[in-house]
Amino acid sequence: MAGAKVSQVIEASAEKVWDLLGDFGGVMRFSAGMESCTVEGEGLGAIRTLRMPGGIELDERLEARDESARTLSYSITRGPLPMKAYYATISVCEEGENACRVDWESTYEPSGVSEEQAQELAEGIYNGSLAAVKKTLGV
Prior knowledge:
Structural class: alpha+beta
Mean pLDDT: 95
CATH architecture: 2-Layer Sandwich
C-alpha cells in the first residue's frame, strides 16, 4: 500500500475549519472547480457524487465521522483517479484559539501510475482543497 499525507496549520479556529471539512455533502461551500456535489443516504455509508468539468464523476463513501475528535474518513468507490483501495482521513486539531492543524492522509494502491505520481496527485488535491478552505475563511 502506498500513501500520502499533508499537514497544514490554518489561522482559523478548529470549529470553523471543521464546519467546512466535516460537512460530507458540503464541499461546494469551499471547493472551486467542481460543478456539483450530491449525496445519497445519511450518516455512515452515505455516497457523495462529485461532478467536475468535462463530465468527470467521482463517488466517495463516508466510512467514519467523529464530531468530538473532528475526524472524517471516506473511500473512493468509483472514479477516474489512478488509485485502487483508496481510503482517506481528515483530522482537524486545535492549535490554540485561532489556529488549527489539518492532517489529510490516505492509503491506496497506485493503478497505472508510479507510487510517486499517485502521491503527487493526492497531495495536490489535499493542498488545493486546503487552499480553498483558507480562501473561503479569508485567512
